[in-house]
Records
---
Amino acid sequence: MIYLDNAASTKIHETVLKEMLPYLKEQYGNPSSIHRYGRNARKAVKKARKQIANLINADPSEILFTSGGTESNNMVLFGVKKNPESRIITSSIEHDAILEPCKILTKEGFDIIYLPVNNYGLVDPLILKNNLTENTSLVSIMFGNNEVGTIQPIADLAKICKEKNILFHTDAVQAVGKIPIDVKKLGIDMLSISSHKINGPKGIGALYVRNGISINPLILGGGQEKGLRSGTENVANIVGFGQACELARVNLLDNSAKMKGLRDYLSNKIIQEIPEVTINGHPVNRLPNNVHLTFLGVNGEDLLIKLDENGIAASTGSACSVQIQKASHVLKSMGFSHEQITGSLRLTIGISNNLEEMDKVVEILKNVIKELRSMSPFKEKYSFY
Ligand SMILES: Cc1ncc(COP(=O)(O)O)c(C=O)c1O
């Protein structure tokens, strides 16, 4: 198999797994316990917190462990202190882990604004500025889009919020570990991270909350994580997540350059060898591992099945949307037609992919697209084959 669905999840790194195993076997203590098992677990959690903080230039005291990107996003939307008239501004292309909480907040009477995006999936900072009111308590705009890979002008957006003293959160689940992120330099108040997108274990993530910001907890109990996220810490996952962040930090530039090289090679070759294809998302401001394409005359679901039969794991967009088969809200917001949305494919590269695989993918894709177009109701359009 050639795995090109790294935006959905990644393979756990060998070193990460090795670091985790002792905490699943002999080091099973509870970090709250006084004895040495507890002390060892506490020490491991402390080390991981520092490793995560280092990746984004935060202080360890600003890192809260959560069960992943979804919980981190929920924690921001529900946890930020608001008054009944509060406005919350987000974008129309966010992940459902932002959009679904927003639906609940709308029902509760909050004023939620969804900023539009252009054809590349970019939010315009000026539009954000024009939508800020005295009652705005939070702005949440994602860093890199999980479907089309477009990277937002985060520093500009954060600066606009800072000028008005409004909290700025970013869902950086797809961007962390792929591009350098310095929360202090970028002026970010809160940031969501997920471990399984960066070769760490699933079910663990973090929320960076700048010191000085006070939010309400979602989960109450024993008071772990400074009372903001109760429940015995998932020590093995935390250790693995910490190690994944450490590896991502040390290898960031190399990994990013490698993925970018493969991405550009793959996109160029697809354009050269397959007729009538478009590459979507911003041409420059994009995640180094994302290739998002539209093949007119092809049904994306059929394409995925054919690719799977031929040994390629890909996706049409957000992994979470596949089960409910809804048309991508991201592509709709970018102004795509129904036919364009239907014919879309997302290939996301990981740290272990190689050039030979890219060649194979293009070869298979070429044949599969030709075959699917020959069966299309609009097949006369593709008579050039
Ligand atoms: C942009 C974005 N936010 C949030 C999430 C959810 O993260 P997790 O799977 O860790 O809950 C994802 C996962 O696909 C994502 O791509």
---
Amino acid sequence: MERPLITGTTSLVGLIGWPVSHSLSPVMHNAGFAATGCDFAYVPLPVRPEHVEQALKGLVALNFKGANVTIPHKQAVMRYMDELSDAARFTGAVNTIHIQDGRFCGYNSDAIGFLHSLLEADFDPKGMRVAVLGAGGAARAVVYALARHGVHSVIVLNRTAERAAFLVDDLAVAFPNSALSFEPLTPAALAGLDGRVDLVVNTTSVGMYPNVNASPWPEDVPIPANAAFCDLVYNPLDTVFLQQARAAGARTIDGLGMLVHQGAFAFEKWTGCPAPVEVMRQACLKILTGG
Ligand SMILES: NC(=O)c1ccc[n+]([C@@H]2O[C@H](COP(=O)([O-])OP(=O)(O)OC[C@H]3O[C@@H](n4cnc5c(N)ncnc54)[C@H](OP(=O)(O)O)[C@@H]3O)[C@@H](O)[C@H]2O)c1
């Protein structure tokens, strides 16, 4: 696809983080803008931690329409937001900013991105029993999305059990209709999930490039019969975790759908146009598969 011209009328959005060079977001969004004819351009904005406040003021001064926010600034930008979405408040992190009349609206699009990735895979978690491996930033968005959507229960399993306890404590009061609990991420706890869960979600970074041979699920622990397996890791797309599940006959959902749908949410906030989800997915796939 040809790169559209940036002209005097082009609206700008970008990605604030440190570093930002690894991100697929510029390619994904610029492909979307080109496909829809939206006169927008997306630029990487490497911002050192000590410059977050100036960078946000700069976005307003330069008439940016918004930005994505990545590691390590997702928490630091929160105090500068004029408004926060429920998802941003519950997850304690902002990854999408929409700027209107100089005011910052902060969102966390990982939650809706995750839910849409399940729904487009024809897996509706409403009423289901879910195990979430990990208790970091992505896990918060996943547990929030699941509880808000009305799952029956979520067990959060994490290497550092206290972190899982904090996550569960934070969300349990707000979502009394879903039973939230935590366990340590041990082989015994994983073995004990058999027959107790319908979906297992890996939100740990285990298996992510360059440690592509690692999995949070030990080889000698049987995969729970009849559960579906979802991995948030999208690089590589086909993780060892998903390969283990597939080999045991389980259904699998990779992390690309979440990436694309969280991007689609931001695209629609900034442009007001429906996001070309397939175009954005293909743009990411091309990079991830070296095509
Ligand atoms: N598909 C998407 O759109 C999408 C969106 C967001 C994130 N992600 C992916 O999700 C993953 C996690 O991101 P995050 O922002 O939540 O990171 P994070 O906040 O740093 O959390 C990392 C999590 O992984 C666990 N972990 C790390 N190394 C481990 C190990 N060796 N054994 C067991 N557990 C380990 C951590 O456990 P401790 O608490 O014990 O350290 C923690 O629960 C990353 O791979 C990221 O790329 C994907």
